[in-house]
Amino acid sequence: MAKKTAVITGSNSGIGLGSAHALAAAGYNVVINSFTDRRDDHALAKDIAEKYGVKVAYIKADMSKGTECRALIEKAAEDFGSIDVLVNNAGIQFVAPVDEFPTEKWDAIIAINLTSAFHTTAAALPHMKKSGWGRIINIASAHGLRASPFKSAYVSAKHGILGFTKTVALEVAEQHITCNAICPGYVLTPLVEAQIPDQMKAHNMDRDTVVREVMLEKQATKEFATVEQIGATVVFLASDAAAQITGTSISVDGGWTAA
Fold first, then answer.
1. What are phi and psi of 8, to 5 degrees?
2. Cα–Cα dist 147/205, whole Å
3. H, E, C per residue of 194-250
4. Do both 88 and 192 map to the same domain?
5. Which of 22, 47, 210, 247 has its CA 20 to 30 A from that of 163?
6. Which residues are catalytic?
7. Average pLDDT for residues 141-151, to the nearest whole number?
8. Could you tell me if 94 and 14 are in contact, meaning their C-beta atoms sit under 8 angstroms apart?
């Protein structure tokens, strides 16, 4: 039986890379992606392929550009023969009050965090319909369910992703294609790790205190989620066990949205 193929956007680090490892470990061929085209990007693909014995490719595409989003899917389908799992993970962040929020930052966040998922999904669905099976998994956020000040674009995009997830799920419900979202809280990625020293300086706190009282203030467990946990959730949603889970979200947020 031919292996299924998973495409993960924004996947040369963090949650995307963790999901790539998890899917490859589960036996999927994998396409990883970012907007760069470095030797290190292609080395990541080679390393994953060798580690898990699957086919892996790195394809450059800028998720702020709709034409490149769609080209990523078509290139992956051409190279691998199918698109079975799509993980819309690409995202960026910027923080500012609404009346000071730069228009170009708003446009970029909406384009990369929300509109890219429309383009990739629209391009992937014909391939999934043709094969009669598919999984679309959107990486949303606790901010898709809750708001925080100074994150208007990010919160708007993540709320939009949840609405998009429900709509797609209903449209393809009878075609053995599911569409779900994962809503992580704070996940200990390299990007988050890099923020800790600045937070320590800003709040005049040691590492443990700033993590617990500032960064993880809303996470009841007072622990970061891990990329491995998010990756395992992706694999579950891609499995046959999740065939009747569609149009919903799974929170991996340490209890953030329980309150």
1. -125, 120
2. 26
3. HHHHHHHHHHCCCHHHHHHHHHCCCCCCCCCECHHHHHHHHHHHHCHHHCCCCCCEE
4. no
5. 22
6. 154
7. 95
8. no
User: What are the tens digits of pLDDT across the range 3-24?
Assistant: 999 999 999 999 999 999 999 9
pLDDT tens per residue, range 23-50? 999 999 999 999 999 999 999 999 999 9
Same domain, 136 and 165: yes
Do residues 177 and 125 make contact, with C-beta atoms less than 8 angstroms apart? yes
CB 252 within 8 A of CB 229: yes
| Residue 179 near residue 248 (C-beta atoms within 8 A) | no
Estimate the share of the chain in helix, then strand, then coil, as percent rounded to the nearest 5. Answer: 55, 15, 30
Model-level pTM greater than 0.85? yes
Residue 193 included in any domain: yes
Is pLDDT above 60 for 1? no
Residue with tokens 């030797």: 39
Question: Number of folded domains in the chain?
Answer: 2
Digit-coded pLDDT (tens) for 165-180: 999 999 999 999 999 9
Same domain, 31 and 20: yes
Predicted confidence (pLDDT) per residue in 244-255, tens digit: 999 999 999 999
φ/ψ of 87, rounded to 5, equals -110, 105
End-to-end alpha-carbon separation of the chain, Å?
46
